[in-house]
Amino acid sequence: MASRGLRTSLAIALFAALLVPPAGAAVTASDLMPATRTSSQPAQGPRYYPEFTYERLYVEMRDGVELAVDLWRPVTPKGVEVPVILTLTPYRVLNRALDVNETDLPNDDAKLFVPKGYAYARADVRGTYGSGGCWDYGGIKERHDGYDLVEWFGTREWSNGKVAMTGGSYDGTTANAAAIERPPHLATIVPVSAISRWWGYAYQQGTRSTYSGESVDIDPPSDTPTDFMFGYGFLPPPNPSDLSRPDQIAMRWDMCDRDEKFLKGYSTEPDYDDFWIERDYLRKADKVDVPVLVAHGLLDFNVKTWEGTAWFQALNTEKILVAGQWPHANPRTYWPGWNLLLERWFERWLYGVRNGVENEPAVQVQSSDGQWYTGERWGEGQKRTFGLGEGEATFLDDGALTETEMLRGPASDRFVRVDLEDAKDLRLQGRPILRLRASSDAPSTHFVAVLAVVAPNGSLRVISRAFMNARYRDSLAKGEDLEPGRAYDLRLEFIDKDFVVADDHHLALFIASSSNTWVAPDENRATNTIDLSRSRLELRLARTS
Question: What are phi and psi of 454, to 5 degrees?
Answer without folding.
Answer: -110, 125
